[in-house]
Recover the amino acids of this structure.
């Protein structure tokens, strides 16, 4: 006859089990700080590469010294990993206090109320804007409210390896360089490297360089009103040009192009597969650290028209989360990064030209290596820069990846160019409507 | 002759009388409910977890699949529009194709490898214990990010595999950037993890009674015949179990394809697994309603496939002890 357990024991055991569950649940959750003006911890995330991260960490350390009761938890990842991570964090309510937003998503996050407007912090002086240039302020302004501030202005340009170009006997790119000149250089560079190195990594699938092409032809990707600013023919022309460059070997072949993403470390130039790369000029410092400053130079884009296709655009928008528990501290950190002279010297041109004109003047004479190259380039070609493009309308976040996919389908022979151009224009139009 | 009728002793008489004397005082619970009650009380923590962490989210996801939800604003009910959009979405069908291709190739090949190695390891030989552990280890590590990164490097352009094949004259270039071969990188990764089903096959093999083998040897059956007529039928429940498990796992594969394709589904969606596309729609396109709809489609699909395998099992799975 089995022993009958007494009901009391069962009940006691049950209560004990439930209490254990409750206790563990509670204890793992409580790491919150008290909400007063005591020590405060804020989080700051950005995208970039290791060099940029090291510099940013130094600037953050300086900030923590100047503000002993603010601790900054920082983290970064490459741009490809950053975008979904940020979206998930914001959606899950765990957004970092201060974070960078990729340009195509700024309007989207703003319209979804993920950002705190910075007007109050500017008005009460937490964020000083006297030395920030007009264009820089405009970058993060949506409908006359400052929703964020860009940390640097940069232009896209052609970053190339002058050593490889000279060794192949190819004419170096510069003002007045046309697409045909690029093709001629491409032949020489292929020949000099036994067919292994292309003159340029294929830019056809990157929407930023399609925008460059549009600017060269007097058009825009998106108009001020948030409409599509180009036609199917424009896109077909761009992809046809890219196709010609690819077919005669000037640019990388399909398989190589698919291994190149937007990060510096996976670019064709950094890996030695290409002798040039269309890239943000703000990455010049990182390229120089990887390949050596004497092996990196910047040139304007090849162009067949009078326009250069280059603009000075914000490289990112730094914003404070609307759900931040310490927006004041986050605003202080933002102000420090942009306006503090020491921080400016440390960060240099790692995210583009500093938006604080006083900082830029102070550091210009001391620039060297890759940074000096960028600064000299900007001074030399400033007059050829076109006005910056307006912020992409909401819904534009998925467009860059879809654009690249459509191009990959063309270069791998899965879709016809005309069909792909038609479908892409349709999908872009529906994404932003 | 006098027959002495023994009457039971006093103690024997009185002993059975004691319980009935006690009984009316407290109604005993029948053994069953008493034990079950205790069981449920101890299960409560797990039941709460299952309800909150599994069933609850599943119901929420079912609701979300009928809404338009961009993670920031409240979900907006739109009926079956997500499901309709799915049917017309070319990338959805391409993801289905890639996943089916993967399941149909990777799962059977993995089981074949597991069975083959299990047969080899069944005979006692030197180092048997070592080999068993060595083959089992990949299945522990295989699903990790680190191994996927290593795999990516191995199969890259100018990687180990590319160089190795070049030395035997096959100049194919890296596998991961070739849309025709990129999926096979993932298939090979799956097959490499055959250790777990192999261990289960080994256990199954050991359960096959030796006298069956003796009998077939006496009948003069060759190795192949013995394998086909004795080993496979006796092993069929284990094969069935492994098949169901591997198919379900293959449908849900995510980590490897995410890492090896850099999160995008590989050159022109050639490694865009269903789960990867789901993740992309949910977290990059802010289309959580659509992603939830995809999740339920996956659930139903796996359910149907599993049910089909179960039905088919009547034809080929032989449980010893049954009358055929």
């Amino acid at each position: 006859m089995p022993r009958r357990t007494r009901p009391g024991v069962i009940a006691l055991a049950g209560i004990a089990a439930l209490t254990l569950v409750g206790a563990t649940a509670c204890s793992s959750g409580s790491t919150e700080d008290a909400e007063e003006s005591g020590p405060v911890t804020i989080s700051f995330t950005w995208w970039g590469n290791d060099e940029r991260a090291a510099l940013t960490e130094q600037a953050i350390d300086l900030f923590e010294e100047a503000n002993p009761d603010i601790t900054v938890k920082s983290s970064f990842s490459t741009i490809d990993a950053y975008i979904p991570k940020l979206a998930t964090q914001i959606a899950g309510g765990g957004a970092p206090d201060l974070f960078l937003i990729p340009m195509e998503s700024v309007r989207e996050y703003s319209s979804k109320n993920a950002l705190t407007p910075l007007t109050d912090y500017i008005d009460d002086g937490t964020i000083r804007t006297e030395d920030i240039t007009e264009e820089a302020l405009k970058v993060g302004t949506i409908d006359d409210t400052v929703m964020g501030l860009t940390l640097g202005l940069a232009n896209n340009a052609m970053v190339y390896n002058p050593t490889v170009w000279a060794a192949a006997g190819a004419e170096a790119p510069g003002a007045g360089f046309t697409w045909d000149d690029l093709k001629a250089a491409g032949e020489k560079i292929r020949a000099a490297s036994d067919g292994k190195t292309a003159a340029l990594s294929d830019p056809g699938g990157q929407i930023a360089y399609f925008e460059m092409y549009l600017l060269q032809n007097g058009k825009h990707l998106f108009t001020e009103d948030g409409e599509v600013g180009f036609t199917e023919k424009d896109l077909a022309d761009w992809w046809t040009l890219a196709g010609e460059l690819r077919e005669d070997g000037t640019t990388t072949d399909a398989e190589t192009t698919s291994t190149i993403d937007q990060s510096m470390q996976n670019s064709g130039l950094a890996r030695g597969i290409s002798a040039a790369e269309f890239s943000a000029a703000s990455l010049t410092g990182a390229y120089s650290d990887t390949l050596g400053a004497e092996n990196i130079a910047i040139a304007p884009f090849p162009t067949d028209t009078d326009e250069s296709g280059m603009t000075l655009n914000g490289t990112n928008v730094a914003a404070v989360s609307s759900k931040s528990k310490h927006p004041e501290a986050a605003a202080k950190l933002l102000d420090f990064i942009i306006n503090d002279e020491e921080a400016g010297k440390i960060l240099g041109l790692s995210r583009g030209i500093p938006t604080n004109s006083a900082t830029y003047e102070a550091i210009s004479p001391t620039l060297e290596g890759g940074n000096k190259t960028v600064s000299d380039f900007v001074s030399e070609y400033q007059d050829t820069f076109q006005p910056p493009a307006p912020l992409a309308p909401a819904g534009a976040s998925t467009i860059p990846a879809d654009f690249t996919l459509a191009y990959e389908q063309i270069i791998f022979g899965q879709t016809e160019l005309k069909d792909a151009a038609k479908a892409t224009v349709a999908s872009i139009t529906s994404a932003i409507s | 002759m006098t027959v002495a009728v023994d009457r039971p002793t006093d103690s024997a008489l009185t002993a059975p009388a004691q319980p009935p004397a006690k009984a009316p005082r407290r109604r005993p619970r029948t053994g069953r409910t008493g034990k079950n009650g205790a069981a449920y009380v101890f299960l409560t923590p797990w039941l709460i977890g299952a309800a909150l962490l599994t069933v609850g989210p599943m119901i929420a996801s079912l609701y979300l699949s009928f809404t338009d939800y961009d993670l920031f604003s409240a979900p907006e009910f739109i009926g079956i529009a997500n499901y309709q959009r799915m049917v017309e979405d070319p990338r959805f069908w391409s993801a289905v194709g890639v996943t089916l291709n993967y399941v149909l190739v990777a799962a059977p090949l993995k089981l074949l490898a597991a069975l083959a190695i299990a047969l080899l390891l069944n005979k006692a030989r030197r180092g048997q214990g070592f080999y068993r552990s060595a083959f089992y280890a990949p299945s522990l590590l295989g699903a990790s990010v680190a191994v996927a990164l290593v795999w990516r490097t191995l199969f890259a352009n100018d990687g180990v595999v590319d160089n190795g094949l070049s030395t035997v004259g096959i100049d194919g270039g890296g596998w991961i950037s070739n849309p025709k071969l990129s999926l096979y990188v993932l298939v090979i990764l799956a097959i490499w993890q055959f250790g777990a089903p192999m261990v289960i096959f080994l256990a199954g093999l050991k359960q096959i009674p030796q006298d069956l083998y003796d009998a077939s040897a006496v009948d003069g059956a060759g190795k192949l015949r013995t394998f086909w007529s004795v080993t496979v039928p006796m092993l069929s429940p284990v094969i069935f179990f492994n098949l169901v498990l591997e198919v379900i796992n293959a449908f849900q594969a995510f980590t490897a394809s995410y890492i090896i394709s850099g999160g995008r589904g590989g050159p022109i969606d050639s490694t865009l697994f269903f789960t990867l596309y789901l993740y992309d729609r949910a977290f990059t396109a802010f289309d959580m309603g659509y992603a939830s709809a995809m999740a339920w489609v996956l659930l139903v699909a796996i359910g149907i496939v599993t049910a089909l395998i179960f039905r088919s099992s009547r034809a080929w799975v032989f449980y010893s002890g049954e009358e055929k």
